[in-house]
Amino acid sequence: MGPPSSSGFYVSRAVALLLAGLVAALLLALAVLAALYGHCERVPPSELPGLRDSEAESSPPLRQKPTPTPKPSSARELAVTNTPSNWRPPGPWDQLRLPPWLVPLHYDLELWPQLRPDELPAGSLPFTGRVNITVRCTVATSRLLLHSLFQDCERAEVRGPLSPGTGNATVGRVPVDDVWFALDTEYMVLELSEPLKPGSSYELQLSFSGLVNEDLREGLFLNVYTDQGERRALLASQLEPTFARYVFPCFDEPALKATFNITMIHHPSYVALSNMPKLGQSEKEDVNGSKWTVTTFSTTPHMPTYLVAFVICDYDHVNRTERGKEIRIWARKDAIANGSADFALNITGPIFSFLEDLFNISYSLPKTDIIALPSFDNHAMENWGLMIFDESGLLLEPKDQLTEKKTLISYVVSHEIGHQWFGNLVTMNWWNNIWLNEGFASYFEFEVINYFNPKLPRNEIFFSNILHNILREDHALVTRAVAMKVENFKTSEIQELFDVFTYSKGASMARMLSCFLNEHLFVSALKSYLKTFSYSNAEQDDLWRHFQMGIDDQSTVILPATIKNIMDSWTHQSGFPVITLNVSTGVMKQEPFYLENIKNRTLLTSNDTWIVPILWIKNGTTQPLVWLDQSSKVFPEMQVSDSDHDWVILNLNMTGYYRVNYDKLGWKKLNQQLEKDPKAIPVIHRLQLIDDAFSLSKGTY
């Protein structure tokens, strides 16, 4: 570079220093703004985007609303504020689980969606609501946390302490100083001017507003469809697993069960449905003089927030009575008129009766509504008293007599009805044990179908629908356990638990347990479990305890370890074992199945062993159950001779959750038998041999 030019613009030394100071101040201001923008994690509740967790900083908003004007609470002005996490001290709002300070007892919930048949929504559809939550205080606190997302809080009051025996008359109110929202943990925080008293009950009174979800089938959502040649709309809810907080402020955890009084305000031409039967109807006018119908419903039993359900629709229904309880199938008027709901109606009652008799526990609610939505991403939802289905899983046109379609509907209906006991009556304590809901509901859907169709090949059907697929997906190092030990899941991680491991592996665990015990012992233990934890919550260990009680009360079934130790070896670790039998020596060993050869052996752990039930056959004859409860063991009875007709197959009916390998002689004996008389080996085991052989070859076994 050459010397600077002698021509140009010159300033004095003082001016130069002033300009330099201004530039430095500007750069500092820009840096501060950039830092604040980059670290901001909260927005006002009226501007919450349709995001969760880490999506909030990188994705465009899905839903937005204008900022409301906060309304006064009593004599105070209710301040609805936001506090970025980097601007506040650490506190319970940073935790992923609610603090145990308040226990919800009862909700009075009113929702008013602005859906009109003559004004189908062209944009965002608003709704307003009020909820009064009766809570019991367990720890003195002046900060109340509950879940809320995508809502504006327009009023917040705390009444109490409530006086027992006087109809909840109160001795006063606790002033609310501030309300703010924590977006990342999805909390509404109420700051009180004085602490609540332990042992006392209070009523939280909250008014709120929100938007109906148009795109996702979460929270309160919209379906637009065509019926009888006209464009129509309905509203429905999907609150599992953590979407109740999208609709109303609540304690949105499965163990925090409460009773609910639900009121829906809707256009007079619509029908409102909820978990319980309609209690009454009245009429009210809005500020414009338009008339609306107010439908109230009976009080629910104790249940978690994720089972609360509501629908507002212009549907018809068919109905029948089963054991004194009404069953109604709701669908588009066209579908009801052409008989598409008849098949579902005809099978629903008998399925309820079968499960009532099996568990010796009657269905708890006075009615069951089942509704078919034109579009429902979750396919089906077991809401207590108001099950919601996608049309494809419920409706059958009379001209469509394909067995495959009927079978699909039967399985889906059976699964959701199974949830009325596993999930609704007894609920897992936290989402890490969601398999207690979904695994047993999945297992019993096959038991239901087998009961009504005993000629169907039950083992082959379970293999083709469940076991074959999950064994292909599940292998060590890259999959998760059925029962997760960690409890502090992020919201997005909770939703990810609704996967093939929860459903299919969970069902396989239940089936294996049933088979190494016996059907009577299995069902008796489940009866005891369901009766003990009715209207309550349970963990996996609670289930094992009831099985152990049943085992201890008899002497026929002898196990090598406790049920907990046996089943924890399957539910608390990922993958499954390969059982290898040397038929020459009778030596059996187990090792984790890997999809491919693992070159880095340091990735492997030394404690990946299972307590394995081995049901087996020799020369076509079923043999007594044995257990492989260590890495290797000798079973002399499994040795074979030189005879062409001497062969062994492990894993009878594929009831165990593992693959089987044999030494060269073992495979040779089976091959010889298949060539001479293939029918001597049952169909299920011919499927097993092919499936195991191909999978083992991929894993270089």
From TrEMBL:
Residue positions of the active site: 416 (proton acceptor)
Chain ranges of the Aminopeptidase N-like N-terminal domain: 103-307
Top-level taxonomic group: Eukaryota
A GO cellular component annotation in the UniProt record: membrane
Chief location: membrane
Membrane topology listed for this record: Single-pass type II membrane protein
Keyword Transcription: no
Binding site residues for Zn(2+): 415, 419, 438
Keyword Zinc-finger recorded: no
Region (Disordered): 47-91
Cell location: Membrane
Keywords from the UniProt entry: Glycoprotein, Hydrolase, Membrane, Metal-binding, Metalloprotease, Protease, Signal-anchor, Transmembrane, Transmembrane helix, Zinc
UniProt cofactor(s): Zn(2+)
Domain ERAP1-like C-terminal: 647-698
GO molecular function, one term: aminopeptidase activity
Alphabetized InterPro entries for the sequence: Aminopeptidase_N-like_N, Aminopeptidase_N-like_N_sf, ERAP1-like_C_dom, M1_APN-typ, Peptidase_M1, Peptidase_M1_aminopeptidases, Peptidase_M1_dom, Peptidase_M4/M1_CTD_sf
Residues the UniProt record annotates as site (Transition state stabilizer): 503
One GO BP: proteolysis
Complex and partners: Homodimer.
Family label: Belongs to the peptidase M1 family.
The name this protein goes by in its record: LVRN isoform 1
Native source organism of the sequence: Pan troglodytes
